[in-house]
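Why should sequence recovery work at all? Because a backbone constrains its sequence more than one might expect. Tight turns favour small or flexible residues, buried strands favour hydrophobic ones, and helices have their own preferences. The token representation captures these environments compactly. In the example below, the structure is given first.
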């Protein structure tokens, strides 16, 4: 009996010790798990995070390399535009060197396309008036078309008359057409026509769909070289592109318009007034451009401006922008692409940029 009691006591002690050990292991495991978790974001600032995702988006069409992008971001600091410029420039230059040393045309062409993507990232956060912008933009375009030529990708550059100016379009005929509709594709707030190849044209043409891409007012060359600002009447540039294309190419049986990003507003607007489109896709939908701005503006801004305190609002904005890369970029880009001289006055009015009107 005494032996049985002793065994019971010893067993109880072992059970407690085992439970304690298990508890310690479980606690340690949970502690380690809490420390070793995926971040889910490259930067806390949403615009910088989005800009990196945009580079990674080009990986599928051989326009970027995951390891290169991840390595470059480790040395970047959100809000430091010149640091951003330097890191992406170094990455672009490395791919230029690889392209020049590559003997295989596929390796060379893909290195050039990666360089294009990185040059596009280089200029993204530079202030619109930065002296480095024009040369970077020209190099970005040059290596893109050189890459397509090296890879044997068929394309046609098209100059589109637009009043006294010109828009830029690029047509990618499908190597093996399936007889589907012509896809007309444009970007939005901060795109350039060359990067549209990676967003859709490369994969669409490989599936038998011909794609016509273009830069409208407020985008790419029309903005940078001619000072053309965005217009909410997107049917005007879109119709001009169609007119020019159909003047030299057979009319397809059907035409579908696709708008990317802010193009999710622009494309449905254009399709509503242009009867030659048989379908329209918002990628993704944007019902109200104005509302996307206003919802982020503190409610006290409008009353202060009506009270004649606009200069105080401007000083407050400048102070906030000094610590907010997102706000600083948004204000500079809005002034540049829309031609705004007073963002806050524009924000409290109601420009016709709503799909419901």
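From this structural description, the recovered sequence reads:
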């Amino acid at each position: 009996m005494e032996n049985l009691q002793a065994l019971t006591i010893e067993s109880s002690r072992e059970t407690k010790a085992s439970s304690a050990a298990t508890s310690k292991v479980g606690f340690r495991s949970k502690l380690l798990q809490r420390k070793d978790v995926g971040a889910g974001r490259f930067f806390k600032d949403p615009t910088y995070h989005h800009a990196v995702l945009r580079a990674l988006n080009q990986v599928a069409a051989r326009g970027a390399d995951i390891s290169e992008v991840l390595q470059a971001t480790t040395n970047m600091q959100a809000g430091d535009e010149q640091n951003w410029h330097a890191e992406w420039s170094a990455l672009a230059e490395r791919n230029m060197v690889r392209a020049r040393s590559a003997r295989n045309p596929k390796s060379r062409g893909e290195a050039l396309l990666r360089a294009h993507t990185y040059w596009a990232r280089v200029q993204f956060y530079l202030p619109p008036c930065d002296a480095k912008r024009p040369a970077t933009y020209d190099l970005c375009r040059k290596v893109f078309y050189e890459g397509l030529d090296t890879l044997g990708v068929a394309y046609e550059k098209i100059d589109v008359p637009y009043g006294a100016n010109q828009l830029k379009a690029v047509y990618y005929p499908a190597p093996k057409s399936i007889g589907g509709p012509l896809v007309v594709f444009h970007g939005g707030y901060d795109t350039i026509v060359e990067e549209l190849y990676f967003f859709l044209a490369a994969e669409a043409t490989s599936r038998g769909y011909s794609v016509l891409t273009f830069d409208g007012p407020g985008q790419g060359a029309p903005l940078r070289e001619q000072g053309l600002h965005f217009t909410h009447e997107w049917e005007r540039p879109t119709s001009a592109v169609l007119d020019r294309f159909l003047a030299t190419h057979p009319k397809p049986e059907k035409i579908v318009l696709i708008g990317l990003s802010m193009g999710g507003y622009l494309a449905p607007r254009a399709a509503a007034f242009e009867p030659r489109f048989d379908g329209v896709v918002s990628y993704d939908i944007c019902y109200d451009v104005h509302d996307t701005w206003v919802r982020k503006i503190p409610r006290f801004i409008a009353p202060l401006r009506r009270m004649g305190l606009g200069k105080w609002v401007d000083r407050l904005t400048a102070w906030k922008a000094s610590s907010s890369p997102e706000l600083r970029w948004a204000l500079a880009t809005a002034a540049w692409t829309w031609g705004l001289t007073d963002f806050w006055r524009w924000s409290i009015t109601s420009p016709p940029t709503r799909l419901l009107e």
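A few observations help interpret the result. Residues 1-11 have pLDDT under 50 and may be disordered.
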